[in-house]
Amino acid sequence: MNFSCERPAVFYALFLLIPALLYALLSYRRFVFSLVEYNSIQKKSYALHKLHLRFTMRTILRSLSFALLVVAASGISWGTNLVPVQKNGQSISLVFDISYSMEAKDAPGGMSRLESVASYANELLDHLQGTSISVVLAKGNGIIAIPLTEDLEAIRSLLPSLSPLLMTAEGSSLGSGISMAINSFPTQSANSSCIWLFTDGEETDGTLLASLQNAVKYGISVVIVGFGSERESEILAGDGKTVIKTALRSNALEKLVATISKETEKSKHGRESAQVSYIDASEPSSAWKLLHMLQEPSKNGQPAIAYEIKQVSHHTLFIALAIVFFAASFLFSELDFGKRTKRTAILFVLCLAFTSCTPRLKDGEKILKGRLEWNRKHYQQAVVYFLQAADNSERRGDWLCANYALYGLAVTYLMQEEDEAAQQRFEQIAANAPPSVQFAILYNSGIIAHKKGDYALAASCFRNALKIDSSSNNAKINLELSLREDSLQSRAQEQELQPISENSEEHTLEQVLFSIIRENEENQWKNQLQHSEHSARDY
User: Fold this and answer.
1) H or E element at residue 457
2) Using an 8 Å Cβ cutoff, are 276 and 219 in contact?
3) Of these four, 204, 250, 374, 401, which has the most CB atoms within 10 Å of its CB?
4) What is the per-residue pLDDT for 356?
5) How far apart are CA 236 and CA 214, in angstroms?
6) DSSP code of residue 101
7) 444: exposed, middle or buried (C-beta count within 10 Å: 0-12, 13-18, 19+)?
8) Is the pTM higher than 0.85?
């Protein structure tokens, strides 16, 4: 059983029980002395015995309650569970073993193992366009030579210079290379992470197994690519004098893979976590197998679901027990139990002990936790809770709970700027979902359409949302904005589509001149008429 404590220093708080118990005991003794002194109670009487029992039970129960709260705050966890995490892209860390054993010239074509690694990796890069890649060098320890980048030329420029002289550390520590590769990935990344280790399997510190187990724990798959011949050959060590024998340790690598595979067997839901695989680079189509493993998690363009092994935290159990013990301290200290009341209380406690929560309540608890993590802006952890609730509800056929979980998942993706994934989850929600969920789906779909520039679709979504809830001022405002943007977009398109004649400007000028001449002639004719009229009257 995997047992861990996240904050062991919290247990020092248990020392606070000592002064608290001393204070309670002294206060109780003064209280009893006062009762006896004023003849309110008799010594060795049944009433005093009952008072002692109540005080003892209250003190014990409250002490246990405080101790359970301390245990809950310490972050104790045991057991493991496979947690689903949605991944939308790919990130790879290339780990190159540059120890002196990799200089053995037993690769195909008479090349050294490092030369063969450089050529092999260079061919792989041609098929990794748009993939984030980091480079780690492993020798006596590991270093990140190139952080995650999509600049493949920077990686290609490093490949010809792979040599043991790049690092002064002695020995061969493949485990440290895997550890540095894990650190090269962001902790809150939406990409699916993978490590490719290019090595001959020679190591001097035996840390590879523990590092591979750690990688699987974080949901990172590892593929070990073996280089060299299984027949031993002699090379010079780093001192230039010692002759050592080296070979491709494929048997040892395959045993490591088999060991980890047994530890990461299918969970109770039939899903697999991250895996560790071994491929011999000299096998036909080994590169195709490597690339196929990379592309396999994402099928039909849908986001991939990776399963990380995480320890199960039991802080909620300890908090619940603390509340129960604290409530029991009042019951045993304040109430006078008769036989019938005692039997009822015992039966109630047994029902609580042997009756577990219904599956819907458990999924509702996960949705609530996801909502709390969403409010804290811990979106990756919120995705975990919503995915678990949606998966459990769909398998159980509880579509009401599944609709709420899918909606929470979609809104979380929307906050992570993953609009396509959010829209896919909105479309998975049933048409008979509650009106509040339907309104939220249409409202958020309108926001996604508006961000894409599809203002007509956005206006349609907001209009349909108002049909469900006509009191939403935000939907009304967004509808007006979408209609205005759609109108402006239509006018701009009409102006772009309107044909322009080369002589249109000349025709316009001619019309203007013609209008001016005609206006002048009319004015002149009116003036002449007016002049003649005045002359006649004067005459």
Assistant:
1) helix 455-468
2) no
3) 401
4) 45
5) 33
6) G
7) buried
8) no
